[in-house]
Amino acid sequence: MKRILIIVVIALAIPIGGYFGYGYYQDKAAAAEEAKKIEEIALKRFMTDTITTNLATNEFSIVQFAVEMEEVEGREQLDHYSPEVRAAVISTMTSLTREDVQGPKGLETLETMMQTAVQDIVPDHKVVRVMVTEFKVQ
Fold this sequence. Notes:
Keywords: Cell membrane, Chemotaxis, Flagellar rotation, Membrane, Transmembrane, Transmembrane helix. This protein is α+β, with helices and mostly antiparallel strands and 138 residues long.
């Protein structure tokens, strides 16, 4: 009787252990895949300098953008055009007022305007999105 009980326990322990072991390694593989994806996105991201510029009114703004490109090559090309990107930020900001950029809707509009401006600078590479990473108006 004791032998049968031991055999049953072992017979149940093996598949249960296998199930949990499989889940553990699947989680590790998923985490590694996620880390690889995050690293890949970081390689496609161009960060502008922090830029201080006047608005259309007597106020000034301090902004910084993160530009996510579809390919690493697009980000590498954008690195060569950083003065043009800076000029696009300045010309865009000087055409706006405080009211234009206030609130989530204003920032969304600004991001869209910058995406269009950057896409015009590097038309051969797709701009996935532009994000405002720093923003102040005084």
